[in-house]
Design brief:
Number of helices: 9
Shape: elongated
Strand order of the largest sheet: 6-7-9-8
Distance between the termini: 72 Å
Structural class: alpha+beta
Length: 268
């Protein structure tokens, strides 16, 4: 005998089945006496497997109730880290009902990658399904934070790139294309609002996960790169002026001191 059920209806409606396959009887008081035929392709489990099915659904309900919504800044930040740093053979973030979870095919390999203990993936809400460990949002978040702190440079490069993009869109807006329609301009003010509400909180979380020391190092390196680009630009102008003045030998000597081909210009 087969049973049809859905996660949300199950909370308020009790189900029973009669002796004919594909017929479901509704036994909650408000549905007294109601019975309907259900195509067997829509049925979820054998009647004999009802308790196992309900137990599995209960585990998933508890897991999802403790999870983050899929469009939250924290979820976006964790997704960025997983995409950039974590091999899907080690762990995969998942979404069900716009809630975030993490599935870990090989906890020992993931623990080795993170230089952590498999105990760090433990949770009273975690369970094993099809041989894989399934864990709630809290574990996904801790995995992302650990990975970002161990390899912050790819994350900080991403943050720097996104911040530059946000600054440009705050000044000029951006164009979006809808299928079958010409590009439309999103005004700068709307871009600023969207960034402040959705994107900046995500970047802030990523920065925090990378750690204060790494942020300081990255900011110092960025300042040095900017200063180098500034000084190089000044040198290029001086070399051009020397060549225009006929002082080619002096200009070439400066190029050689800079360790670049004579006459070449370094990109800022």
């Amino acid at each position: 005998m087969l049973l049809r059920t859905t996660r949300r209806l199950r909370a308020s409606v009790s189900w029973a089945a009669d002796q004919r396959a594909g017929v479901t009887s509704w036994v909650a008081d408000e549905f007294e006496g109601r019975a309907e035929w259900v195509p067997t392709g829509r049925l979820k489990c054998l009647w004999s497997g009802l308790e196992t099915f309900r137990a599995r659904e209960a585990r998933w309900d508890a897991l999802l109730d403790a999870s983050e919504t899929g469009d939250s800044p924290g979820s976006s930040a964790a997704s960025t880290v997983f995409d950039k740093l974590i091999d899907p053979r080690l762990a995969v973030m998942g979404w069900e009902g716009r809630c975030t979870t993490v599935t870990i095919p090989d906890p020992e390999a993931l623990a080795m990658f993170l230089d952590a203990s498999t105990d760090s993936f433990a949770s009273e809400l975690s369970f094993i399904e099809d041989g894989w460990l399934v864990a709630p949002w809290a574990i996904a978040r801790s995995i992302a934070a650990r990975a970002a702190s161990r390899d912050p440079d790819p994350i900080l490069r991403y943050v720097e790139k996104e911040e530059a993009k946000a600054r440009d869109e705050a000044l000029h807006g951006r164009y979006v294309e809808w299928r079958g329609e010409p590009p439309q301009l999103v005004p700068p003010e709307r871009c600023q609002e969207y960034d402040a509400e959705h994107c900046k909180p995500c970047r802030d979380i990523l920065r925090a996960w990378c750690g204060a020391a790494e942020l300081e190092r990255w900011d110092e390196a960025k300042a040095l790169r900017e200063e180098l680009a500034h000084v190089t630009g000044i040198l290029d102008k001086a070399i051009d002026a020397l060549r225009r003045a006929g002082e080619t030998r002096a200009a070439n000597a400066i190029d050689r001191e800079l360790g670049r081909p004579v006459g070449a210009k370094r990109k800022a």
